[in-house]
Automatic annotation (TrEMBL):
It is found in: Nucleus. It comes from Pundamilia nyererei. Residues 85-96 have a biased composition (Basic residues). GO terms for cellular component: nucleus. This is Neurogenic differentiation factor. One of its GO terms (biological process) is axon development.
Length: 359
DNA sequence: TAGGCCATCTGGTCCT
DNA sequence: AGGACCAGATGGCCTA
């Protein structure tokens, strides 16, 4: 199966992810209607350049007509360009009016299919956007950034499960932001309410870009100073783009909320966290999906097989010391464990995960 | 205004 | 034969 197909089917499969159309506000029917309307438009305005002079696909060449199988003369300059070798292959058929019409219809149908295909792909991407950190309806991540962030997110979650430790925020953000563009990096960092200046300091001070205390095996990240020094990312800034655009932090949802309501996306409607990868296998079990009204009640099952049942030793102050700072990280904007809370009544996974990190 | 992102059209190729 | 997939081209929109 080709990649995009897999992506589309994975994230469009209602058995794998909560109700695609419901979240995206797009349904097959509505889209079909839209397509039909568009077809009317495009059929009228559609340029038939490809049909006029361009080459035609093989299916357009072959066996179209029974009635007009007359063969067009070898008129490709057979006399005027005598030095050019005659073309081989099936001889051109004369483009009768009927054949032109049929070609048009084929092209219109192909365009519709292609449009639908791209809509499916976009729908799948929308679903992906909803389960990676920094989901916002109003300011969507670009396609490529969504894919990159999703990859990093999967990696980060896998590392959490593999190590059985709660990562420190810096490592978590670093992992998520690896390879992302500067704006997206700022967004993610801001989403996770990281003090960007300190993050930067922390990071830049680590020789080789490594941050050693985390449970991740960190690589060096190509962050530039300007990247995270944006005033938008300052905790106290009211101009924080995430406040404006209602971004939502998955770190918060996993490890607890910020406690500042304005930081939570007012537009958030659904589950925020994807199924977690455990031992390389995604464990996804949604319950009570019989009713479409249960969309908020999708539960992701999570098993900590092989993982310690309590918080790992030394994890207590992995991130936030009682002083409010750790290694220069200001934590005025992030709450300690006991202040964390779960958005909605979402899923046992959050309880389990929080219990895991709190115990 | 340049550049990024996106939707759409299009023709080619591969597969069923 | 027809559909799926892909990549190139094109134009619109938005933002710095």
């Amino acid at each position: 199966m080709k990649g995009s197909t897999m992506l589309t089917r994975l994230f469009s499969d209602p058995s794998l992810l909560p109700d695609v159309q419901k979240y995206s506000g797009w349904t097959e029917d509505s889209d079909s209607d839209k397509i039909k309307e568009e077809d009317q438009d495009t059929q009228d305005g559609m340029e038939v350049s490809g049909l006029r002079g361009g080459s035609r696909t093989h299916s357009e060449h072959d066996g179209e007509d029974d009635e007009d199988d007359e063969v067009e003369e070898e008129d490709d300059g057979e006399d005027t360009e005598g030095d050019r070798p005659k073309k081989r292959g099936p001889k051109k058929r004369k483009m009768t009016q009927a054949r032109v019409e049929r070609s048009k219809m084929r092209r219109v149908k192909a365009n519709t299919r292609e449009r639908n295909r791209m809509h499916d792909l976009n729908s799948a991407l929308d679903n992906l956007r909803k389960v990676v950190p920094c989901y916002s309806k109003t300011q969507k991540l670009s396609k490529i950034e969504t894919l990159r962030l999703a990859k990093n997110y999967i990696w980060a979650l896998s590392e959490i499960l593999r190590s059985g430790k709660r990562p420190d925020l810096v490592s978590y953000v670093q992992t998520l932001c690896k390879g992302l563009s500067q704006p997206t990096t700022n967004l993610v960092a801001g989403c996770l309410q990281l003090n960007s200046r300190n993050f930067l300091t922390e990071q830049q001070c680590q020789e080789g870009g490594r941050y050693g205390s985390g449970s991740f095996s960190m690589h060096s990240y190509p962050y530039q100073c300007a990247r995270l020094s944006s005033p938008h990312c300052q905790p106290g800034s009211n101009s924080h783009p995430l406040r404006t655009h209602g971004y939502c932090s998955t770190y918060d949802s996993l490890y607890g909320g910020s406690g500042s309501p304005e930081y939570n996306s007012p537009e958030y409607e659904g589950p925020l966290s994807p199924p977690l990868c455990i031992n390389g296998n995604f464990s996804l079990k949604h319950q009570g999906s019989a009713s479409p009204d249960n969309e908020k009640g999708y539960h992701y099952s999570m098993h900590y097989s092989g993982l310690p049942g309590s918080r790992p030793a030394g994890a207590h102050n992995l991130v936030f010391g009682s002083s409010g700072t750790r290694s220069g990280i200001h934590t005025e904007n992030v709450l300690p464990y006991h202040d964390m809370h779960i958005h909605h009544e979402r899923a046992p996974v959050y309880d389990e995960l929080n219990a895991f990190f709190h115990n």
